[in-house]
## 1
Amino acid sequence: SSGGSLSQNGFNSFAGRVNYNYAQKYFIQASVRRDGISSLPETNRYGTFPGASVGWTISKESFMSGLSVLSDLKVRASYAEVGNTNIGNYPYLGLYSSAKYSDYNGIAFSQIGNDQLQWEKSKKIDIGLDAAFADNKYKFTFDYFENNQDGLILGVPTPPSFGIPSNVINKNIGKLKNWGYEFSAEALLINKKDFRLTVD
C-alpha cells in the first residue's frame, strides 16, 4: 500500500465596528466584516458580512419615573450575517489520491472539482427584553432567535460510471432554519454580609 497527504489553509479578515450610546438610553451598533478563505475558489474567496443592533432602555425615560418597583427595562434587537469557515481545506478542487490496482500502486481521481462554490452564510435575528424589579432583586430575560443558513455545502450524488470513490460533487444546495424562544429568571432571596442566596 501507499499513501500520504499534505494540506494547508489560510484565512484573512478585516472588520470594523461603530457604537453609539445616547444618555444610556439609546444604543446603536453597526459592524461589517470582509472575510477571505482559501477553501473557496479565487473568484468567490471573499465575502462581506454586515451586522447591526439597537437597544432602548425604557426604564430611563421620564414617563417611567413613577414606577419604583421597576428597576430596569430594556428592549433590544439585532441582525447579523456570518460565513462558515469550517468547510474543509479543498472542497472546490479536483483531487487525486493514492490507489491500488491489483498489485500495483498508483493514483486515482478522488474528488470532482467545482469552481462555483460559495460561502455558506447564516443570517441571525434576535429580539429580546430584559427586566429587573425591586432594586434588581428579581430579573427576567426573554429572547426570540432565528438562524437561517443558506448555501450549505453538501455532496450531490454522481453516476457511478464517473469512477469517483465518493460518488459525490460538492455544491451549495443545503438550507437550514433554527428558531426558538429563550426565557431566564433570577431571584436574589438572601443578601447578607457573609451569605448570599440566588436562584435562577
## 2
Amino acid sequence: MRLQNGTFVLVSDAAKALLLQNRGDEHQMDLRVLEALSEDSLPNREQAADKPGRFATPDGGRAATEATDWQEVGEDRFLAEVAARTLKAVSGQSPALLVVAADPRSLGKLRPRLVDSGSIVLVAEINRDFVHQTIPQIESALIEA
C-alpha cells in the first residue's frame, strides 16, 4: 500500500492506540507519532462492587440480572476517546485521509465513530493488531498490505 503525504494512520486495540501521520511520500513512507493513548483497566473482580442483582419475576420466583462486564465498558470508553481524539487531530485537513489498523473487535467499534463524521476519507481498514510493534514494523506491514 502506498500512502500520500499527510495520510493519517490509526493503530489501535482496546487498550492502546497510536495516531501516526505519513510525512514521507508515496514511494518512501515516514510515519511519525502524533499521539499515543493507553488505558490501564483493572480486572472485573476489582471493579465490581457486589454480586449481580436479583429481582422478582411475574410468577413469584426470583431471577438474577446479568453482571456488568466492566472490562468491556472500559474498552468502549477508551475506543470512543480514541475516535474523538483522532477526529480532533485530523480536523485541520478536509477531507483527511485515514488508514485504520486494529483487531476485529476494536475495528468494528471504531468504524462507525470515525466514518459518520464526514470529515474523514477511510483509505483502508486493516484487520490486524499492530499496536505493539515498532514504527518500522508498522511501516513494513502497511507497505505489504
## 3
Amino acid sequence: YGWKDNVGTTPPIHIHIDHIELTPEQRKAAQQLTGSLITNDIGGIGDRGKLSQIAKGKNGMPTNKPAAIKALVDSWRDESTIIWCHYNDEQERMEKTFPDAVSISGDTSEAKRELYIEQFKSGEKKILITKCKILGFGLNLQIATRQVWSGLKDSYEEFYQGVKRSNRIGSTRPLNVHIPVTELEEPMVANVIRKAHLVESDTRTQE
C-alpha cells in the first residue's frame, strides 16, 4: 500500500520430516483401532488423535520416538532447542529423555516459568520442553535455532505460532524445524504442511 518496509527479513525456515519406525505393539494397536492393515487409514480428527497418542507411546506402550529425538538433539549439542509436545505423558517422557533440560507444563509455577525461560534465553540451558498452548504465543525465543515437534496436530495456527517463537525479526541464523513422524501421524503432518503451502501461496498472491 505504499508504506516502506523498515524491518528487513527473517532468516529461512528449513523443515525436516524425520521418519520413525513403529514398534510391533504400536502397529498392532493401530490396526485394532482402524480395523485395517493400513495403520493410518482413518479420517476423523478424534480418531487421528488416538493414533497420535499410540505413536507417542501412551500408557507406557513401547515407542521409538524418544530415542530418535535424543539422537537428533545430540547431533547439534551446541545449538539451543525447543521440543514441542502435545500430551502430558509425552512431555514426561521427554523430561526423562533429557534430564538436564528445563520443562514447563501446566503445573509449573509462575516463578519457575520465569526462571526457566531466562535460563533458556541466556543459553544456560540448551533444551526447553513445553507445549504450544503454554509458550506458543507471544514469546521471543529466537536463541533456539532448532525445534523438534514431538507432538503435532491438525492446527496450522499452532504450528505457525510455535515456529515463529524462534524465527523473528532480529534472528541471524536459519531455523531448522524437525518433525519426527511415524506412519500413524503422517495424515496430520501432511495436513499442516498443506495448509502452510496454501498460506504461503495466498500471501504471495495478495502481495
## 4
Amino acid sequence: SVDELRASFPMVEYLLPSGSEGQADGLTEYAMSVARSTTTATGMLVLALVLTVYLLIEWKATLEWLMAFVPERHRAKTRRTLADAREIVCRYMVGTVIASVITAVITYVVLASLKVPAALMLALISGVLNFIPIIGFILSSVLAAVLAATVSTKVLLLVIGFYLIFNAIESYLIAPNVFGYEMELSNLAVLVAVIVGAELAGVMGALLALPIAAIYPTIERIWLRDRL
C-alpha cells in the first residue's frame, strides 16, 4: 500500500502527494503520467530507428526520388551531401551500439558483484535503454534500485551511487569519446549538441542532435566554402 511504501522509503514523501485523502489517486495519476511519457518516448525512438533502417536499406531509390525535386544545377552537390549524411548516420548507429555495449557490460559486472537479483536482465535493459537519453537512464536506474532494495539498504545505496557516477562518466567521458571518434566531432561539440537538442525538442532532439551536428561540417564544406 501507499502507507507501507512511505514507511519503508521515507524519501518517497517528496514524490508522493501529501495528505491522507486522495493518496492512492495521486500516486496512480503520477504513475500514469510517467507511463505515458515513457510510452511516447519509446514509440518515437522505435519510429526513428525503423525510419533510419529503412533509409539505409532503400537509400538509392530514395536518393533518386529526391533528386527529381532538386534544380539540375544543384544536383551534384546534393548527391554529395546526402551520401555524406548517410555515412554519418551509419557512424552514429555504430557509436550508439558501442556505448550501449559498454554500459551493459559494466552494469552487469557491478550488479553481479553486489549480488543484485536479475543482474543480467538489468544490464541488458540498461544497454537497450541507453538509446534513449535521460529517460533511459532514469528507468534503468529505478528498476535496479527496486531489486537492490530487496537485498539490503547498503546494496541499494551502492547501486544508486554506481548509476549516478557511471551516468556522469558516460555522459562526459564515454559518449563524447565514442561519438567524437565515430563521427569526427570534438568532445565539446558532442556535449553542446546533446544539451541543445534535449533543451529544444526533448528526447527526439537529443537523439537527432548528434547526426545533425555531424552533418553540418559537410554542408559547410560543400555549400558554404566560397562564403566562409
